[in-house]
Amino acid sequence: MKTELVIDLEAEKQEILKRYRALLRASKSTLQKGDKKEIRKAFDMALESHKDMRRKSGEPYIYHPIAVAQIAAEEIGLGTTSIVCALLHDVVEDTDITLEDIEREFGKKTAKIIDGLTKISGVFDTNSSLQAENFRKMLLTLADDVRVILIKLADRLHNMRTMDFMPRHKQLKIASETIYLYAPLAHRLGLYAIKSELEDLSMKYLDPDTYKFIAKKLNEKKAERALFIKKFVEPIDEIVHEQGLVADVYGRPKSIHSIWNKMKKKNIPFEEVYDLFAIRIILDSAPENEKADCWKAYSIVTDLYRPNPDRLRDWVSSPKGNGYESLHTTVMGPRGQWVEVQIRTQRMNEIAEKGFAAHWKYKESSNDNGLDQWIQKVREMLNNPEANALDFLDDFKMNLFSDEIFIFTPKGALIQLPLGATALDFAFEIHTDVGATCIGAKVNHKLVPISYKLQNGDQVEIITSSKQTPKEDWLNVVVTAKAKSKIKSSLKEEKRKIAENGKEILERKLKSLKITYNTENIQKLSYFFKLPSTQELFVNVALGKIELKDIKEYLSSGKEVESRSPERPENLSVDGIKSKIKGGESDILLIGEDMQRIDYTLAACCNPIPGDDVFGFITVSEGIKIHRTNCPNAAQLMANYGYRVVKAKWNKQQELTFLTGLRIVGIDDVGLINNITRVISTDFKVNMRSITVDTNEGIFDGSIMIFVNDTEHLENLIKNLLKVRGVTGVTRFDA
Ligand code: MN
To answer: Are residues 357 and 388 in the same domain?
Structure first.
């Protein structure tokens, strides 16, 4: 029988209208007079201009802008302008419609937002600095109009939700970008629900095995967990209502990504992660009773269950910088299990779920405005033209995820800094000049060094000296992006001055040796002294590290020093590298589009072994390096240097061995080490390279480096090691 694909256009048209109506329903709460007409106009324009386009899945393209608009309205709580912009977000880039058309039809504001959206979506496949520049642009528009970023997040979320039809390498790249930048941004803007979903979806593509493993485990115990939650919640619910509070009490599962993070961070198996869910108490309170009601609920919960005093978090009295307000406590449940309870009002909950947009809606009733301050800070940082885009991005990203501490100035003003900030960070926060001349600080009237890590509530007075200047090692002392970029630009300036001086000295020295001072000779010299740039050469001369006798040595070395400027990664093309590398007999890894056998080395950061999901990365000097897709460096590499990533796949059959590490923990017992090594070397005939063991009060903690064939081999070994008496956990580690 012949089958043929028939698209029922009439049915498709009905479906488009159905989705459009669902969008209108979702935006109903914000619609004002005339808004519906605007949205209809945008929808008609998008429908018409995308009419001949289809998505990779074969669906009509218009499904995508409708879905993005729906996310913007429903999940972020944005209004009509944003819905219009979301519907039109791809038209300027992908169709004949111009920005002028948009401005004529919808006005300046809409055109400006769409311009921002079009700029961000630019080319993401060129080189790294361009890519970083793109991210930087994106952050610039954040300082301009946050809606651009919010719509971009909605766009990214829908693309991540519908990525199954993409080729694998695109999935990896998009997922990497998402985990590297978009999820942290969503977090910083307080969009917790979107952040968690982006993280889970990224993990689903970057580390599919672990993702499926945890999803399966979660599913297995679902009924049991539901019963536990019901029993736990019942008495709370009862007393809360008795006391006249109106509240919704329920259990909420944690995301797969956050469970995995906990497993990695604490090095524990799934079974030992206790907080697979959190209990939420959402109160319906009048604005003036909010705080009192939250504490009343807290009192009820802790009367029923014993709280862990170290785990009380009060973001009701001092909200987080992104607007998050909530009261968190961890209590001992009836079966000796710790349970996290989050208490907040409906208003606070809406801010926690929808972030920024909700924050603005309630602005009048909220006394703190951390986000405004944060955007102001972003604006300041972006205005520093000296900063290298890639460096900037790294520093900036570090600040995206961090929690804040609150520090007082001597006069009692409150300054917000990320957790881990030092006295020096505080100095730069006050003023660049204060930071640059800082020699120490008084914290709560006690003298401390500049590297002192500040604690929440510290009162800090900075001590300066006019003789002080920023030092290279200060970069290790500070954590804020602001302090880092200020120190870097001042060091650069300093270095430039030294190099200028060194250049003059070198010119004189060469003259005395009768060598012409020209670019070629200078490059030969820097190459001879193994320096990465001529600027470094000048600096070394100025600092007296390279003297006349060293230059003479170079002359007498007689070697014709080849002047080779170090190859820049941007100049390398994938094809160029591929043709340079020849295939060897023992290769077992297939690389590239056509899956050829070429030379490679295994990355030391994640030690891949056959069976692992891997990709190749073209390095400047060491050919292709193979990383695991769940390598800690993978997201950063793929997000910034996507064009240097090549596909790689194991071809199973070989007898080669690969080095990997196992961490074994257990109860120390006579002969435990003997039993472990017996399983490894006698039963499994695996070679051990090293073994280090720590025993502490009867707890055994050992690291063993072994050679295995592939993941299957390793899994069997782990299974058998777990059978050894006394062993309680065996996990693979990378470095
Ligand atoms: Mn799009």
So the answer is: no
Are 82 and 178 members of one domain?
yes
Residue 141 lies in a domain: yes
Domain boundary among 481, 511, 538: 481
Q: Do 142 and 378 meet the contact criterion of CB atoms below 8 Å apart?
A: yes
342 CA to centre of own chain: 25
Number of domains in the chain: 6
381 CA → ligand 1 middle, Å: 28
Please report whether residue 366 resides in a domain.
no
CA 156–ligand 1 middle distance (angstroms): 7
Backbone angles phi, psi at 116, to 5 degrees: -60, -45
Give the integer Cα–Cα distance in Å for 486 and 429.
Answer: 10
Whether 525 and 578 map to the same domain: the answer is no
- Residue 239 banded pLDDT, cuts 50, 70, 90: very high
Q: What is the structure's pLDDT at 405?
A: 79
Domain boundary among 420, 449, 481: 481
Q: Are strands 589-591 and 614-618 parallel, antiparallel or unpaired?
A: unpaired
Report how far ligand 1's centroid is from the alpha carbon of 399 (Å). Answer: 27
636 & 685 share domain = no
| 117 Cα–ligand 1 center, Å | 9
- Is residue 421 domain-shared with residue 476, that is, in the same domain? yes
Measured CA to CA in angstroms, residue 610 lies from 189, 642, 705, 709 at distances of 40, 23, 16, 7
Q: Above 80 in pLDDT, residue 72?
A: yes
User: The domain spanning residue 42 has which CATH number?
Assistant: 1.10.3210.10
Residue with tokens 């009924």: 223
| Domain that residue 384 falls in | 371-481
244-247: long-range pairs with CB below 8 Å, 24+: 245/283, 245/285, 245/293, 245/296, 245/297, 246/283, 246/284, 246/285, 247/281, 247/282, 247/283, 247/284, 247/297
**Domain-located, residue 132:** yes
Distance from the CA of 38 to the center of ligand 1, in angstroms?
20
H-run or E-run covering 339: strand 338-345
Residues with CB under 5 A from ligand 1 (ion): 90, 155
At residue 213, the pLDDT reads 93
How many Å lie between the centroid of ligand 1 and the Cα of residue 638? 20
Q: Give me the chain's average pLDDT, please.
A: 80
Geometric angle at alpha carbon 550, from 549 and 552, rounded to 5°: 65
> Do 187 and 50 belong to one domain?
yes
Residue listed under structure tokens 């100095």: 427
Regarding whether 535 and 646 lie in a shared domain, the answer is no
Are 345 and 466 in a shared domain? Answer: no
**CATH code where residue 292 lies:** 3.30.460.10
pLDDT in tens, 480-512: 888 998 898 888 888 888 888 889 888 888 888
Question: Residue 243 and residue 296: Cα distance in Å, rounded?
Answer: 9
Helix (H, G, I), strand (E, B) or coil at 345: strand
Q: Could you give the residue numbers annotated as active site?
A: 93-94
Taking each continuous run of H as one helix and of E as one strand, the counts in the chain are: 30, 20
How do residues 331-385 score in pLDDT, each as one tens digit? 988 878 889 999 999 989 988 887 766 665 554 434 445 556 656 666 666 555 5
Distances (CA, A) of 422 to 376, 426, 465, 478, 483: 21, 6, 18, 6, 10
Q: Are 470 and 490 in contact (CB under 8 A)?
A: yes
> How many whole angstroms from 118 Cα to the centroid of ligand 1?
10
Return all residues near 241 (Cβ < 8 A) that are at least 6 apart: 247
Tokens coding 507: 């010119």
Residue 563 lies in a domain: no
CB 192 within 8 A of CB 355: yes
Ligand 1: distance of its center to the CA of 116 in Å? 13
